[in-house]
Q: What sequence folds into this?
C-alpha cells in the first residue's frame, strides 16, 4: 500500500492509551513505523512509551506533522473520533474499530465526501507497506521486506495501463463489459490483437461452442455463464499471457460445478483437463495462470 503509506508517513493513534491502542502502537513502532503521537482528551500531556498524547487530532497534527491517523476508539465514540479527524483535514484515516453502527459508518463516510480525508475501514486490519510502514494490526512478520511485482522478467508496478496490456496481462472484470449494441461475434472481435499468439475465432468456438451457436445473438442476451465465456474469449483473442479473473468462481458454462478457468493455456489441445486446485481448466492458447 505504498501509494497511501510510505516510510515518511507520520502516524498518530486515536485511542492510544487503550489496551488495543497501546498494544498495536508498540507493534507498529517495532516494525519501523513512525508513530509520532496519540490522542486521548482525558490523558493529554501524558505519553505512551515516550510517544506524546494530545487532546485533539488538530493539536497532534500541529505538534507532529502527522498525516495518518489510526483509530482504536470504542464503537460508541468512533463516529466522533473520525469526524474530528476529518475536520482536522487528516489526509488518511485508518479505522480499525469493529462493531461501529452501520448508520454511524454511513454518516462519517458521507461527511468525508468532498473533503481532503481518505478513509480506510471501518473494521479493517489497516495498511502495510512492507519494509516501510505499518498502520493498523497487520503483523509485520507476514511481509517483512519490500518486494517487486514482475511478469516475464518485467517490473509491473510503475507500468502505464497500455504497457500492462502490451506486456500480456489482462483483466476480466466482474461486470464483464459486454456491449448490448453488439452481437456475440462483434463483441468478440472488438479489442485489437496486442501480442502474437492470440487465439483465432475458430479456436475460441472450439473452446466455447455456445459462442458459435449464438454468434448473432445480442451480447447481453446471453446467460451469465455464456457472457463469462464471451468475456474470456475476447481476452484470449488479444494474445494475453496472463488472465486475471475478478470473479474466479463465477460459472463459465462449461461446467456449472467448476470454477471459471484460470489455467495454463497451450496451443496443442482444446480439451478440458484438471487443474492442481481440483477445478476444471482448458488447454488452448497462450500461457495463462
A:
Amino acid at each position: 500500500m505504498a501509494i497511501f503509506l510510505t516510510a515518511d508517513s507520520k502516524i498518530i493513534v486515536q485511542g492510544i492509551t487503550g489496551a488495543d491502542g497501546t498494544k498495536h502502537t508498540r507493534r507498529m513502532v517495532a516494525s519501523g513505523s513512525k508513530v509520532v503521537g496519540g490522542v486521548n482528551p482525558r490523558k493529554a500531556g501524558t505519553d505512551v512509551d515516550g510517544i506524546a498524547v494530545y487532546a485533539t487530532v488538530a493539536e497532534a497534527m500541529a505538534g507532529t506533522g502527522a498525516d495518518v491517523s489510526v483509530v482504536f476508539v470504542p464503537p460508541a465514540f468512533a463516529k466522533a473520533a473520525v469526524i474530528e479527524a476529518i475536520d482536522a483535514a487528516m489526509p488518511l484515516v485508518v479505522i480499525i474499530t469493529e462493531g461501529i453502527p452501520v448508520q454511524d459508518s454511513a454518516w462519517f463516510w458521507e461527511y468525508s465526501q468532498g473533503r481532503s480525508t481518505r478513509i480506510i475501514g471501518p473494521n479493517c486490519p489497516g495498511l502495510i507497506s512492507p519494509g516501510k510502514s505499518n498502520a493498523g494490526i497487520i503483523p509485520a512478520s507476514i511481509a517483512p521486506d519490500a518486494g517487486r511485482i514482475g511478469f516475464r522478467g518485467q517490473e509491473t508496478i510503475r507500468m502505464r495501463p497500455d504497457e500492462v496490456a502490451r506486456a500480456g496481462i489482462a483483466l476480466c472484470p466482474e461486470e464483464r463489459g459486454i456491449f448490448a449494441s453488439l452481437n456475440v461475434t462483434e463483441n468478440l472481435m472488438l479489442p485489437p490483437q496486442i501480442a502474437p499468439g492470440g487465439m483465432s475465432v475458430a479456436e475460441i468456438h472450439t473452446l466455447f461452442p455456445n459462442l458459435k451457436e449464438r454468434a448473432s445473438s445480442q451480447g447481453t442476451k446471453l446467460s451469465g455463464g455464456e457472457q463469462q465465456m464471451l468475456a474470456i474469449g475476447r481476452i484470449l483473442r488479444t494474445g494475453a499471457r496472463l488472465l486475471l479473473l475478478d470473479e474466479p468462481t463465477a460459472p463459465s458454462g462449461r461446467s456449472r460445478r467448476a470454477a471459471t478457468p484460470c489455467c495454463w493455456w497451450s496451443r496443442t489441445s482444446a480439451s478440458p483437463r484438471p487443474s492442481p486446485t481440483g477445478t476444471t481448466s482448458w488447454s488452448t492458447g497462450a500461457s495463462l495462470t
Summary: The chain has two domains: 10-142, 150-282.
